[in-house]
Design a protein that fits this description.
687 residues, alpha+beta, four-stranded parallel beta sheet, 42% helix, flat
Length: 687
């Protein structure tokens, strides 16, 4: 670990511009990275917080083909949506670039050329899958087939999402092109490979020995598994029509593999930022006194801990990351987040439905962050954290302090009298919080750090509850001045320490307290007081920091997800295959008639059975049907039904059932009646 670095380069995983940003992205990468960057700035550190849109690769090409537009149109559309989402949620990048920018193309090609000229690549001709009808080589995601390991018939050419196995497209059984549906052929093509196996000793020493005690167990464990399993050369080029040209002779029509060009996007984005700010970019990537930290999700661990470091090591002039604090995945209401299935909470939609509640979501995601294991976001938990923690704890304390200061002193901070032991203990505890919270942040334990912030609010609430200034004001007004002075010091400390976690709330607090926002992290420790006597705070009634979220608002979100689930089931539901052929005479034997249910009751001691009286037009007969778990007797009386009238009678629990009614299932798998046209009278036959 680097001690006392001169500067920090902080990167957040480049989001693919093939869709908007959802809460999983925010929880896994961007909020933790933002908390860390904001904290360091409050410490007065030199910080470059870098990100950008990842705009190359198969994901973009697939999206373009699906929507019938060009890759450029795809990236322009989603780059705009993503940028706005980040800005709306206060993600404080120093620079957000694009890998389609010229500076990135130039930087990536220069990086490739440096390694090429040094002889660090292996050049090989291999056989790859080729779609003759589309006249193109098939990238991994343009091939589907049967997984050779688990038998899943929907595996992609790079991975089986059913069993999690990493695959090569040529491993698939019965591969098909997703472009034309044709069976691809094998065709020879030349590519360049990074020989990762050459870096096994370096990676073992650097990570498995050097970072054994300071990297997160989930990161360390995945790296160890890959290294122990044996590293193999990995292609850095591919046959694609969208991406960065390979800048060497004989590579016409080939592009840099997106995994190679994307992490170089951190470097090109830093260059872009430095040029705009009049800085030198190189110290942020090449000075040993710089601390480089990558914030990513667990699906990017291999790229940031093995492949990109091997690239940097091969180039020779770059520093290596000090830490890669990758998070696990966030699920949604018990199911894996999925862009393709629309199983997500999209940031741009969230703000339409919960305006000005950015910090509520930041709080909920941080307090439930998947730091060491996969966690689950639920709307009920989101509501509880807002109502019980933000509103009842932090919001309640601030509101009481502001209201009492306005009521007793017209919004002027009172001069304190002599402090007693309780006052001194509270003020001393306030001064301890910056170090406590900082320790958690610097160990990338953001959930723990946020809980400590809330403990400071709890300290304030307890102080007021124990001291009861609203009662004492009648008998000892001088003592109340001291109490309110102490409470205002706690409130001001909260305005500083909350800024990394709840930047919009911190801004509101600064406005209420009429502070200029220039107080720094260590001022809480170093200053004798944070807000001075006779300082005027806001005199008009302040808005409530955190309004309660009602059950109706939450139910609306749950219903929205249920509708998505129903739509997914309907879209993915496959019809049962056709049964064996029958002759017309077989069908003609069935007597299908229109009927109406005129009576219905539950079968005693049977959860699934209803006893129905049905007017078939030729008689009124009893039919026992196993639909009691789907329908109550009351709701089906008068229901028009189709009856198989000549089914041989059968006794069920002592009741003779004289036929059967026809049912099917809807998209949700629920039973529904197969209804005849309402104009058809009872007894009409169905031919």
């Amino acid at each position: 670990m680097i001690q006392n670095p001169k500067r920090y380069t902080i990167t957040a995983a480049l989001p693919y511009t093939n869709g908007p940003i959802h809460i999983g992205h925010l929880a896994g990468v961007y909020v933790p990275a933002d908390i860390y960057s904001r904290y360091l700035r409050l410490q007065g550190k030199d910080v470059a917080f870098i990100c950008g849109s990842d705009e190359h690769g198969v994901a973009i090409s697939m999206k373009a083909k699906k929507e019938g537009i060009t890759p450029q149109e795809v990236i322009d559309k989603y780059d705009g949506i993503i940028r706005k989402s980040f800005a709306d949620f206060g993600i404080s990048f120093d620079n957000y670039s694009r890998t389609s920018a010229k500076i990135h193309h130039d930087t990536a090609q220069e990086f490739f050329r440096t390694l090429y000229d040094k002889g660090d690549f292996i050049e090989e001709t291999t056989e790859q899958l080729y779609d003759a009808k589309a006249d193109q080589f098939l990238a991994d995601r343009f091939v589907v087939g049967t997984c050779p390991k688990c038998g899943n018939d929907g595996a992609y050419g790079d991975q089986c999402e059913n069993c999690g196995s990493t695959l090569n497209a040529t491993d698939l059984i019965n591969p098909k092109s997703t472009i034309t549906g044709e069976t691809p052929i094998l065709k020879s093509t030349k590519h360049w490979f990074l020989p990762l196996d050459r870096y096994t000793e370096f990676l073992t020493e650097w990570i498995l020995v050097g970072h054994k005690n300071d990297w997160k167990p989930n990161v360390y464990g995945q790296v160890k598994s890959w290294v122990d399993g044996g590293l193999e050369p990995r292609a850095v080029t591919r046959d694609l029509d969208w991406g960065i040209d390979v800048p060497v002779e004989g590579a016409e029509g080939k592009k840099l593999y997106v995994w190679f060009d994307a992490p170089i996007g951190y470097i090109s984005s830093t260059k872009e930022w430095a040029a705009r700010e009049g800085k030198d970019w190189e110290p942020y990537w090449k000075d040993e006194d710089t601390k480089l930290v990558h914030f990513i999700g667990k699906d990017n661990i291999v790229f940031h801990c093995i492949i990109f470091p091997a690239m940097l090591k091969a180039e020779g002039s770059y520093i290596l990351p000090d830490n890669v604090p990758a998070n696990e995945f966030l699920n949604l209401e018990g199911n894996k987040l999925s862009t393709s299935k629309n199983w997500a909470v999209w940031l741009h939609e969230y703000l339409e439905e919960f305006p000005e509640k950015q910090d509520v979501l930041r709080y909920a995601l941080t307090s439930n962050a998947p730091e060491t294991k996969d966690n689950d976001f639920t709307w009920k938990d989101f509501q509880a954290r807002n109502n019980n923690e933000l509103a009842d704890n932090l919001g309640n304390f601030v509101n009481r302090v502001v209201v009492l200061t306005q009521k007793y002193y017209d919004g002027v901070v009172p001069n304190p009298n002599k402090f007693n032991e309780v006052d001194e203990a509270a003020l001393a505890e306030v001064k301890a919080y910056p170090a406590v919270i900082a320790s958690s942040i610097e160990r990338y334990r953001f959930r723990e750090a946020l809980n400590e912030l809330m403990n400071l609010a709890r300290l304030g609430n307890k102080y007021l509850a124990d001291e009861e200034p609203w009662k004492l004001i009648k008998t000892d007004a001088e003592r109340v001045k001291t109490q309110m002075y102490v409470a205002l010091q706690i409130t001001t400390a909260l305005s500083i320490l909350s800024e990394p976690f709840l930047p919009f709330t911190a801004k509101k607090l600064n406005s209420i307290l009429k502070l200029d926002g220039n107080l720094k992290w260590n001022d809480i420790v170093d200053s004798s007081e944070l807000i001075s006597p006779n300082h005027q705070i806001q005199t008009e009634k302040a808005d409530v920091l955190f309004a309660k979220i009602e059950d109706e608002e939450i139910q609306k979100q749950i219903d929205k997800l249920e509708a998505t689930k129903t739509a997914n089931i309907a879209e993915n539901k496959k019809a049962e295959p056709q049964k064996e052929l029958i002759q017309y005479e077989d069908f003609a034997k069935m007597d299908l008639r229109v009927g109406t249910i005129i009576e219905a009751e539950k079968m005693p001691k049977a959860n699934k059975l209803l006893v129905l009286k049905i007017d078939t037009g030729i008689d009124v007969r009893t039919i026992v049907s196993g639909i009691a778990e789907s329908f109550s007797p009351e709701e089906i009386i008068g229901k028009r039904v189709t009856v198989l009238a000549n089914l041989a009678p059968r006794a069920l629990r002592g009741v003779e059932s004289q036929g059967m009614i026809l049912m099917t299932t809807n998209a949700e798998g629920k039973l529904v009646f197969v209804n005849p046209d309402t104009d058809a009278p009872n007894g009409e036959t169905i031919n």
